[in-house]
Amino acid sequence: TVTPASRDFGADLLLEAEDGWSIAVQAKRYEKAVGLEAVQQVAASVPYYGVNEGWVVTNSSYTDSAYELAEPNQVRLIARMELEQLLKEAGFKR
Asked: What is the tens place of the pLDDT at every residue in 37-63?
């Protein structure tokens, strides 16, 4: 599910597997490294939407502070190289 463009409460997408496991995703298309604000946003969206976990996905990389905040908040950070690998495994072709 795509959340509203404004007042999305920290998530751009809400994903749910057939078994009910759910994920709030904050997507960041950046030229620079993504900072801790994105982690804060998705961490806040997890209890708001009642999902199991939060992810931040980017076409870029992350700052050290983003990694530092993500770990205790159980937020998964998916940077460009991992995103490319996930897309390849899913059969996406350029």
From this structure: 999 999 999 999 999 999 999 999 999
Q: Report CA-CA distances (Å) from 5 to 23, 36, 51.
A: 18, 21, 19
Q: What is the pTM of this model?
A: 0.88
Phi, psi of 40 (to 5 degrees): -60, -45
What tokens does 17 get? 């597997």
* Strand arrangement, sheet containing 75-78: 13-16, 22-28, 53-58, 75-78
Going by C-beta distance under 8 Å and a sequence separation of 6 or more, which residues neighbour residue 54? 11, 23, 24, 25, 26, 42, 43, 45, 46, 73, 74, 75, 76
**Phi and psi dihedrals of 57, rounded to 5?**
-120, 130
Nearest to 51 by CA among 87, 85, 26: 26
